[in-house]
């Protein structure tokens, strides 16, 4: 995954920053590191409790009511720069980001989605979850690149710039009931079909409700046997 500029290691960022904005900075620094070194980087962590709205949500007629529904239930509102619909993080929900160097921003999109989906399925199956591609009808943040088992567990998205592709996703570990309860009024306000019963989790599907175990499984699946250069999220990624 690296050329003569790279040292063929994977930068692994562990932990979360002190604030939600700090976490965004960490991921940005990770992408910049990949662009500068031509080496891949990976991060899996538990974001702070929040309701992350996509660009389509922010332009919806019921967006203000959706924000009120989230905040009144203890989920601070943030807006992310990508598309997709609202995603709830409880503080135990796992997010992941895999940044890889690319030579052409017009090719490789499907292959990167396939690689990420396969890695997530491998990670979940290593934890005893019968994971498979796809999602139930009327799932949260509906999309073509999802993983399910007794409900939707993971959704995957991708951002591409000239020299780096960032494939990211969310994995519901255990709080499927809490997530369903807050997403129901949020999606109702946004006028987006949503079935609360479609929310799955690692724990609901027979796996562990331990976020750290899920994080390690994802790291192992994405990084594999490559050498890992580990950085704490509270430090600069390019140290």
From TrEMBL:
Gene3D superfamilies according to UniProt: Bira Bifunctional Protein, Domain 2
InterPro entries assigned to the protein according to its UniProt record, in alphabetical order: aa-tRNA-synth_II/BPL/LPL, BPL_LPL_catalytic, Octanoyltrans_LipM/LipL
Keyword field: Ligase
Keyword Ribosomal protein appears in the UniProt entry: no
Signal peptide boundaries: none
A GO term, aspect molecular function: ligase activity
Family matches, as PROSITE patterns: BPL_LPL_CATALYTIC
Protein's UniProt name: Lipoate--protein ligase family protein
